[in-house]
Amino acid sequence: MSMYMMIILLIGAGILVYSLVYTLFVAKERKAVRGDIDTELPDNVQKHAYLRNPVFLTYFIFFLILIPMVIYFSLTWNW
Fold first, then answer.
1. 77 to each of 21, 44, 47, 74, how far by Cα in Å?
2. pLDDT in tens, 9-46
3. DSSP state, 9?
4. Is the four-CA dihedral 66, 68, 69, 73 of positive or negative sign?
5. Residue 60 needs a FRET pair 20 to 30 A away by CA distance; which of 13, 19, 25, 52 works?
6. Residues whose CB is less than 8 angstroms from the CB of residue 38 and which lie 6 or more positions away in sequence, other chains included
7. What is the pLDDT of residue 23?
8. What whole-number percentage of the chain has pLDDT above 90?
9. What is the mean pLDDT of the chain?
10. Per-residue buried b or exposed e for 5-41, using 16+ beta carbons within 10 Å of the residue's own CB
11. Are 16 and 65 in contact (CB under 8 A)?
């Protein structure tokens, strides 16, 4: 396995571990709030609704990884 692929693998694994820990933390926090009514969103999330949205964040990270890979392979491919 090349060094480039090892770096990409470690970055991906780091993102997965961070996502799992963050999800477990949020789930514990939501379990602490009992009741049928949803709680209000924190002020930071309300101010930055698009930046804190995990769907948009996932797309941003995906393209942040995809674009350098496309550039790398287009420059190193033997035509």
1. 38, 45, 44, 6
2. 899 899 988 988 888 887 776 665 555 566 677 777 67
3. H
4. positive
5. 25
6. none
7. 82
8. 13
9. 79
10. eeeeeeeeeeeeeeeeeeeeeeeeeeeeeeeeeeeee
11. no
Say whether 35 sits in a helix, a strand or coil: coil
Residue 12 backbone dihedrals phi, psi, to 5 degrees: -60, -45
Please check whether residue 65 is in contact with residue 11, taking contact to mean a CB–CB distance below 8 angstroms. Answer: yes
**Residues of the chain with pLDDT > 70: what percent?**
72
What is the DSSP code (8-state) at residue 1?
-
DSSP code at position 36 = S
